[in-house]
Write a structure and sequence with these properties.
The protein is α+β, with helices and mostly antiparallel strands and about 200 residues long. It has a single domain, classed as Jelly Rolls (Sandwich). The chain contains nine helices and eight strands. It has a four-stranded antiparallel sheet. The longest helix has 28 residues. The radius of gyration is 18 Å and the shape is globular.
Length: about 200
């Protein structure tokens, strides 16, 4: 009984810390009125999820917008029976399956956690309702989405205009610990190279 109580208290403390960290990030993006902030914060649900957990599977409708406070995740799809990593995300970031979320149609993308992760999620319907009700929340959501889209555009541009070596160096510069946290197979796929090519790049050959 006492053990269960301690675990419950520990979870509450972690959830409070998670929400505090999230709101600090939000305040850095945009200023909300007190009413808007309270309504906005109340609809984000905290989760502590294990490595390997699927947030979205192929064919499911992506019903949530996510904020990853701590952890790692990948967004991928299957092409010719091969996994293709479209996006890698680490601590302190927003992510979603964009087309599925906005059109509320089955997702071709799959979202999987690569580490035990602490995250927050808001349901599509709740977010749309908040945006309709609070103009400052609508503006905030636009900024949150813009942040995710800019990162996605950087990836597209890098695949089109940069060499594999440049893409690798930029990835390591932006995420120095990614090699310790994400399997090389996924990193190679994200960079658009084979695992053998990635090994040669890392070896400086």
């Amino acid at each position: 009984m006492l053990h269960d109580l301690r675990n419950a208290n520990r979870r509450l403390v972690l959830q409070d810390l998670l929400m505090d960290h999230f709101l600090t990030h939000i305040r850095g993006l945009s200023r909300l009125s007190e009413d808007s902030l309270q309504a906005f914060a109340a609809l984000w649900k905290p989760y502590s999820l294990p490595k390997g957990h699927f947030l979205v599977r192929e064919g499911e409708i992506s019903r949530h917008f996510y904020y990853l406070s701590r952890g790692a995740a990948r967004i991928f799809y299957y092409k010719n029976d091969r996994e293709v990593t479209e996006y890698l995300t680490l601590d302190d970031s927003f992510f979603l399956s964009i087309l599925s979320f906005f059109r509320q149609q089955p997702s071709r993308l799959i979202i999987q956690l690569l580490e035990p992760s602490e995250l927050l999620a808001i349901h599509h319907d709740d977010l749309m309702h908040l945006c309709d009700r609070y103009h400052d929340v609508e503006r905030l959501f636009r900024l949150m989405l813009t942040e995710s889209l800019i990162i996605s555009q950087y990836r597209v541009d890098s695949l089109q205009f940069e060499t594999a070596e440049q893409r690798y160096k930029n990835l390591i510069t932006n995420h120095p610990d990614i090699l310790q946290r994400v399997p090389l197979t996924y990193i190679a796929s994200y960079l658009g190279v084979t695992l053998e090519t990635l090994s040669r790049i890392r070896a400086g050959k």
